[in-house]
Amino acid sequence: MSRSREDEVRRLFEVEYGRLRAWSTALAGDSSVGEDVAQEAFTRLLTRWSSVAEPRAFLYAVAANLLNDRWRQQQRKRTLLRFLAFGAAEAVPGPDGSVRDLISQLPDRQRIAVLLHYYGGLSLREVAHHMHKPEGSVRRWLVEARASLRSDLEDAR
Amino acid sequence: MTLEGWGGDDFPRELPALDLTVTPPGPDVWGAVLRRARRRRRRVVAAVAA
Hints:
By secondary structure, chain A is mainly alpha-helical.
């Protein structure tokens, strides 16, 4: 790894690390997970720097995918808990109405699109690039996600 | 810090904002990231050479 490459990533690290860690922490609901996710995103950026065209978008795409994997694991765990706690509903944590909770209930593609575009600040083109899908598909998932979030939020009121 | 509308002008009003508390990284976080990346690169190089 060349010194100049490390210096370039370091400059981005100084500007973006705190925000990426805060973003991941808010979405994971756990500061140690947020720290791990942000560090892993920068580690991957360092190892792939020469092939990354938009470093900031890359960081948020990696973090969103790591968070998504975590959500999937938690969903599997909740399903198992619900099964094991049959008749003891209080043993299964219920929804808390947080952003994290609302987004965690979206289908994978909608969730990633919402995280990157609305909460990560990536353009539609950047989101489409990182999801390897056309912009039209991303736009459609965002519309669908907003409709289902709107309905969830109305139900919660 | 609450970032209303982070994500651009089209941030939907119906979505709640994320509460973000942005603090600077600890003293050796960059060092840890760099060491981890170098280890990973060495492993890849070794695997390719093997």
